[in-house]
Amino acid sequence: MKSEQTLKAPLTINWAINNSCNFLCRHCYSRSDTAEELAGDVLCAAMKRVAAAGVLSVNFGGGEPLLRRDLLDIASCAAGCGMRVSMNSNGYLLDKEKAVALKNAGFSKVGISIDSHEALAHDRFRGVAGSHERAVNALAWLREAGIKTSISTVICTFNHEQIDSLIEFALANKVSQLNFHNFKCSGLGLANKDELDLTPLQWQEFYRKALRAKEQVKELDISLDDPIIASLGLKSGSSMVKGSVCGKLSLNIKSNGDITPCGFIPVVIGNIVHDELKEVWANSPVLEKLRHKTPTGKCASCSDYGECLGGCSARALAMTGDFNSPDPHCWIP
Amino acid sequence: MPKIYRNPDVMWREEDESRAQADEALEKGENAEDIGTSLLFSDGMMVTLNVLGTEIWKMCDGRDADEMVSELLQQFDVEADVLKNDVAGFVAELAEKGFIHYEE
Ligand code: SF4
Ligand code: SF4
After folding, report:
1. I need a surface site. Which of A67, A88, A194, A278 has the fewest CB within 10 A?
2. Which domains, and CATH codes, for chain B?
């Protein structure tokens, strides 16, 4: 019904409430981030303003949220303002009591990062022995507590051919959603890119198979958050915006309150403590550019540009310094 | 006739500025059909509604379709039959997306 109109505020915010982590993931983008953390009361005040601006949901991530001692208070504050609260966690610190406490604090959904159905492969990638088992247990505790669960898997060289096993694993653990995250070359991910990132043709192959699986497996919501799949003919219709969601539906907030378009675009456009969210959302020149990208290089003659809009702006920026460049994952010759 | 309820998992909000724009257009007797004045958002799926859609959505709180039509008739200048059709079609679409459910 409309597409060009800019919303009054983001629908959802990915909020890094901390950067500390008990894991050593090789693809992580935030452990290399040393930004300070906002105090609980400052965070809560900021969340109240964000909710009043119209934001509907917040997702805590960045570091490991469970390492923040006041996580429950922060979540209650966000939920108390009427926002839907979720987080991404590695699940290591979860047990039955914690899961119930999360539910009581207002969490409606928790995503657990699991990179392989095989425990050893996951543990090696995450850098912590026994982490797979604890992640799987976490899913069960959460479900029992009445929290929706999802599995988040970062697709990279060691798991891209395991789609079917990953789906089976997700079904066996009764999660409602399986998120295949595309590998982002920023933060530590950039340092480990050569070893972890797929080639464009491998991405094409992966997405072809993943889209087919998404069509076939009805019991599970398989989510592929990558604009680059537009050229494979996925109907986006009115369900989502075209191209990348950053600056159109969502924003990212770092642990020190700095606002960036997305967790993988290290361009600060304001600070949630000092600036007015709506003002940043409406007037940031960076967001303006992200919303109105200009096709360059092969994108200029690509018939899918209207849907793809050059793919992931973060990857383009990380590799070329310009988010108008074609997504480095793009397989179109 | 079944009562219609919003699915509580769906998040939604009105876009005040667009709404003001649409109201202004309607006042002048212009077409506001293409102005999205609210959006619904659920698990990565987003739907934008125009003024009429928004008003119907807001009424999905236990009313049935007939009740909706008679209330909307007081608000909008449309033929009863046309409106009845529009409401039925729209509600069916929402149901198909899982955004609402029926209760007897
Ligand atoms: S050439 Fe550009 S617009 Fe076309 S699919 Fe690749 S990244 Fe997307
Ligand atoms: S820039 Fe890339 S990573 Fe960031 S929201 Fe857009 S598609 Fe996702």
Report:
1. A194
2. 3-103 (3.90.930)
Confidence grade of residue A192 (pLDDT, cut at 50, 70, 90): low
Q: B82 — alpha (psi -120 to 50), left (phi > 0) or beta? A: alpha
What's the predicted TM-score (pTM) here?
0.89
pLDDT of residue A32: 57
Q: Is the CB of A313 under 6 A from ligand 2?
A: yes
Chain B residues in contact with A239 by the CB 8 A cut-off are 44-47
Ligand nearest to the backbone CA of A247: 2
Q: Are A35 and B20 in contact (CB under 8 A)?
A: no
**For B53, which residue in chain A has the nearest alpha carbon?**
A1
Residues of A in Cβ contact (< 8 Å) with B11 = 11, 56-57, 84
Looking from the CA of residue A243, the nearest atom of ligand 2 is 7
Cβ-defined contact of B15 to A7 (cutoff 8 Å)? yes
Is the predicted pLDDT of residue A193 greater than 50, yes or no? yes
From A152-156, A159-163, A224-228, B42-46, the region with the lowest mean pLDDT: B42-46
Ligand 2 and A265: CB distance under 6 A: yes
Convert the pLDDT of each residue in A107-140 to its tens digit: 999 999 999 999 999 998 888 899 999 999 999 9
Q: What would the mean pLDDT of A180-189 be, rounded to a whole number?
A: 68
Q: Verify whether the Cβ–Cβ distance A239 to B18 is below 8 Å.
A: no
Question: pLDDT digit string (tens) for B52-61?
Answer: 999 999 999 9
A23 pLDDT above the threshold of 80: no
Which residues sit with their C-beta closer than 6 Å to ligand 1? Answer: A 231, 298-299, 302, 304-305, 308, 310-311, 326-327, 330, 332
